[in-house]
Give the backbone structure.
Amino acid sequence: MATKIRILIVDDHQLVIQGILCSLKEVGDFDVVTTNNCDDAFQLIKSHQKNNPFQLLFTDLSFDNSTKDTNLDGGEELIKAIKNNEFNIKIGVITGHTETNRVYNVISNLNPNAYLLKSKCDVTEIGFAVQKMLANDYYYTHEIHQKIMRRNIIQIQMDNVAIQILKELPNHPKISNLEGVITKNDGSILKLRSIETKLANLRVDLNANNNTDLILKAKELGIID
Amino acid sequence: MYKKTTLFIYFILFSTFVFSQENKDVKDSISFYLKSFKENKDLNLLKKAVLIAEPTNLDSLKRELNIKYGIYGYLKKDTTSLFISQQNLLKLYLESKDSFALAKHYHYKALIFRLKFIKDSSFYYYHKSKKISINLKDSLEVARRLLSMARDQEMQRDYLGSEISSVEALKYIEPLNEIRYTANIYNNLGLVLTQTKRFAEARENFLIFKKLNDKKPTEKERKKANIDYFINVGLSYADEGKHKKAVEYYKQGLSIKGIETEYPRRYHTLTDNLAYSNFKLGNKTLALNGYKKALLSREKYKNLYGQSISHSLLSNFYIFYNDKQKALFHAKKGLQISLKIHNSRRILENLKYLSQLTKGEKGKQYLMDYIQLSDSITKRERNLKNQFAKIRYETEKKDKENNSLKEENNKKQLLLESEKQQKIIGWLIAGVSILFIGFGISIVSNRRKKLLFEAKLQQVEVRENERQQIAKSLHDEVAGDIRMLHLKLSKANQLDEAEKLNVIKENVRTLSHQLSSESFEMVSFKDQIINLISDYFDVNFKIKVEGIDNVNWLEVNNAIKRTLFLSIRESIQNTKKHAEADQINITFSETKKAIFLVIFDNGKGFDVEGKKNGIGLKNLRERIVEINGVFSLESKLEIGTTIKIETPKNGN
C-alpha cells in the first residue's frame, strides 16, 4: 500500500494552521503534523528522519511566541538548520512578509521550493505548490514572482555590462561578434565565454526563452530603450 | 632682423678667421726667428720675435719668448734685453696674473743688478723671485734663485750666508733628482767650505759634484765640470797647504784635451794655480813659466780680468825673489788693468805690492790708497753682508708676521665658522623640533579626530541596534498584543472594531519594518540598495542607480553605509510622497577620503527657504552631519530636487 505523503506545518498562529489544514484536506489525503514553534519542528523532522520521514514542510518566517529559551528563532533559522543537516525534505514558505529585502534573502540564500503569501493563499494555490514541491520544482506566488522579477530588472539596470550586451545584441548577427565590443568597468574587454554566461543569466533573470525574447522583454520592461 | 643677425654672424666668423689667420702668421714668423736665432745666436732675432708676439694674446708664447730673450740677454751681458724682457714679464703678470711671469720678472731684475754689480739689490730681487716660486711650489726655480744668492754671497765673502742658502737650495732641489743645478750647489758648498777652512768636508762636496757631473748628458758638459772639479779640489789642497796634492789635481785638469782652446779661462786659472803651487813648493822655473804662459794666453784672449790676476801673481813672485824692477812693472800693470775693470781685490793687491816696492812719498801714497780702499772694501763687504742678513731677516720676520696673521685669521675664521655651524645646528635643531612638534600635534589631532569620528560611528551603530530592538519589540509585543485583542474582538463579534484594529496592526508592522534593517555582513550594501529600490520601483517611478560599483563597500564602515542607506530611503520616500516625480537618479562616487552621493528627482520641486523642512529632511541632515558629512539640498520648481551628500571614509 502506498504510504501517505507526510507534511509538517509550523506556524505560531493556530488560525493559520487551521486554514492550511483545511486547504490541504481539499487537495488530497496527506498525513499532516502541526507545531507552533521552530524548535519542535526541527526535532520532529530529525526524529522521523530514519523511519517515516516528512516529505514536505510549510513554515512561517517570523514567530511571535519565541522566548529566551528558543533556539531556532524564526523560519529562516529553521530552514538553515534543515539545510545544514541535509535532511531530504522540500520546504515551502507561507508568510505575510513581502518586503523585497526579506523575500530576496530567503529565496537567494535558502532556496525554498515554494513561497506563498498568507493573504493571497487559497486551495488551488496550495495544491499547485504541493505538486511542484513534490516534483522538486519551484513555485512562487505571483506577487513574489513579480518582486523577484522587478529586483532582477533593477539589478540588470545597474549592471553596466548587462546593459551593453542588451544594447549591442540586436546589432550583431552572431554572439561571437560581441567580443571586443563589450567592455568591463575598468575598460578591459569582456571575453566571449563571459558574454555567453551573462546572456544565459539574463535569460533566466528575465524569464526569456531565447535571445530575441530577452531583448523584447528587456525593451518591454524598460531596461533598454 | 634676420638679415642683420646673419650679417653679424658672418662678421664674427670672418673676424675670428682673420684673427686665427693672424695668429698663425705670427707663430710662423716667430718660429722662423727662433730657428735662425738657434743658428747664429743673434739677440736681435729674439728681440724681433718678442716684438712680433707683443700685440697678440698668445700669453704663454709671449712668456716663453721673453724668458728666452732675458736669459740670453743676461748671458750676453745685455742689460737692455734683460730690461725689456723683465718689463714685458711684469706686463704679462699684470694682464694675466701669471705669478710665474712675476717670479721671472724679479729674477731678471736681479740679473740686471747683478750685471751692474749692485749686489744687494740683486740679492733682494732674487729673494723676491724665490718667494713667489715658493708660493707656486716651483722647487727648481726656488733652488736656482737660492743658488744664485749663494754664489753672490760666496763672492762677497758672506760664507755663512752662502752656506745657509746652499743648504736651503739643496732642500728644495734634492727631491727633484735634478743634476745640473744640484751639482752647482754642491760645488758652491765646496767652495764655501774651502774658504772657511773645512777642507775635507769641502772635498766631499766636490766629490758629489763630480759624481753628479758624470751623469750629465753631453760630453762637453762633463768635460767642463770635470775641469771645475780639478780646479776646486786642487785649490782646496793648496789652501790647506798641501801643494803637492794640489799640483796633482791641477795637472789632471790641464791634461784634459782641448782645454786651452775650449775653456781658456779655466785653462788660465789651472795654469796660474799650478804655477802658484809650484811657487810655494819652490819650483821657481816651473812657477814662472806657468805664470807667463797664463799671462800670454790671457793677453791672447784679451781677458783683462785674467791679466790683472796674472800681473799681481807675477808681481808677488818677483817680490819674493827680490826682482824689484819686474815686480814693480807687473804691479803697476796689474793696478792699471784692475782699475780699468773695477776689480777692487786686485787693485788692493797691487796697491799693497806697490807700497812695498816704492819708497818715500809715493810708497806712502800707495799705502794710504791701499788702506782707504781696503777699509772701504771691507766696509762694503760688511755692509753687503749686513744687507743680505737684513733682507733675509726682514723677509723672515715678515713671513713670521704673515704666518702669525694668517694663523690668527685662520683662528678667527675657524671661530666664525664654528659659530656659524653652531648657529646652523641650532636652527636645524629648532626647525626639526618645530617640525617634530607640528608632526606630533598633527598626529595627536588626527588621532583625536579619528577617535571622535569612530566614537560617532559607534554612536550611530548603537542607535541602530536600539532601533532594531524597538522594531523587534514592536513586532513581537505590540503587534502580538494587538493580535490577541483582535482575536478577542472577533470572538465578541465586534467586527468593525476588529477591522480598525487590523489597520493599526498593519501600521505597527510597517513601522517595525521601517525600523528594522538587515546587517551589511549578511546582505551586501549593493543588494540592500537593489532591494530597497525594488520596493519602490514602478513603471511610473523609475529609479536609476549609477556608479555603485565604483565604491569598494567592503572597506566602508557599516554606520556610514547605514546612514547612506537610510538617506536614500528617506529621499525616495519623500520624492514618492511629495514630488510627483517619475524618475530618481542616484549616483555614487568616491575619492580617497570621501564618498559622494547625489540623489536627483525630476519632480515639481519646492522652495527650500520658504517652507520649513519636514522632519524627515531634518533627520536626514542631522544624520549626515553627525558623521562629519556634508549635506546640501537644492530644489528648483518644475525641474526637480537634488540632494548632495558627502561623507568622509574615516576621521581625517
Observations:
- Chain A touches chain B through 21 residues (CB under 8 Å).
- The first helix of chain A runs from residue 14 to 27.
- The mean pLDDT of chain A is 87.
- Residues 159-220 of chain A form one domain.
